[in-house]
Amino acid sequence: MADLAALTDDVLAEILLRLPSPRDVARASASCASFRRVVSTRSFLRRFRRLHAPPPPLGVFCCYPAGSGGGGVTAAGSQFHASVPPHPSAPLARAVARSADFSFAFLPPPAAGWLVRDSRDGRFLLDRAREDGGSTAFTEIAICDPVFRRYRLLPPIPHDLAATVENPYVQRGGGDGDLQSRSSEIFLASRSSDDDDSVSEEEVPAFTVIWMACCRGKLVAFFYSSESQQWRVLSLPEYYALSTRRVMGVRLGQRNHAHGCFYWMVALTHRWLVLDTCKMEFFIVDISPVLSGRAMMFSNQITTLERSDGRTTVVVSDVFRPDKRCVLYFYAFMYFSDSWHLLNRVTLPEEWGYRFRGIIGAAEGYLFVKLDHPKENLNDQSERHVEYFSLDVKTMQLESFCQTTLPTVTEAYLYCGFPASLLLPSI
Structural domain tally of the chain? Predict the structure, then answer.
């Protein structure tokens, strides 16, 4: 121990940075107070994340219809499902599940009023109906950190901005009185990363909240910055560039993300609405060449995946085929002006043809696929479940990730993170 005490923190940091995985660093920091002191600094964590892979996927956070019977759930109709053995992230997932409060019981009561809307960089975004009621669009919004049990309530959208939102379409099912009903899309965007040396030891990385509503004849969007602490307007393309017919208005599909951009399929079109969060600008991309001849019935048939070389991988699911098989097509592009290059074509197992329900997310070179319960369990409620598999994009190997016995999942968010010993508060 005398030799260890003689080592400076700088030397200890250089030694610990050479450990191969987050799990090894977590074990080291738990074994010695000196290691813990070094590992818990933001500068060490920034350097470690530069040298190693991003936070691993640890589980799936599922949202259920109200009254579906999610036992032990505090936030309305939601539950965290940690990855299970033999998946390699299972040990870290168990540790995070033990240390974090994924029931969000630390939020202002009543906790059952909160609904999970998004998860990114260890933060969760939840909202609930305001006390004055009557609006499914303008809700009370909270950003929280379930590991450190911290939260921040965002200020309401100013009246002059709110007045521009007229008759928004309901985006999540249910009537106006339903707890699950929402007529806006709210999500998180990171504004700084672990590579940002301007963030001091005392500061937490900045974040942005995007608020969007689809109204008849137009889209409306605002954003809130944790730096300015103000809501501002986001300019959008003319609505006729998004819709097939003006009278139909605009409806957006599942949201995807890669390299600081968010993507939505515009319903009944072969176009993407894209938000570049670096420039805070929207634009339209025509993706009809790669979708031609394929029935795109659902927005989760297309997703995006980050590549380490800066390119974006696009995965198109062809599920409505005469042979009842599900085929995934992998494309790549660097800039939106590029033509997409076909990288691979993968046919999923035959028995998955009727179970495949889309791709819920991507992380660390993996896609996470949602499957419904097998046909043989249709008549046995106790055996019905939703299962999630990981697909290694390089090796195309499939592996079970986690599952839930509650059959109806309205939303599913892939959760990625480090163990508590490698984290600092994000709120």
Answer: 1
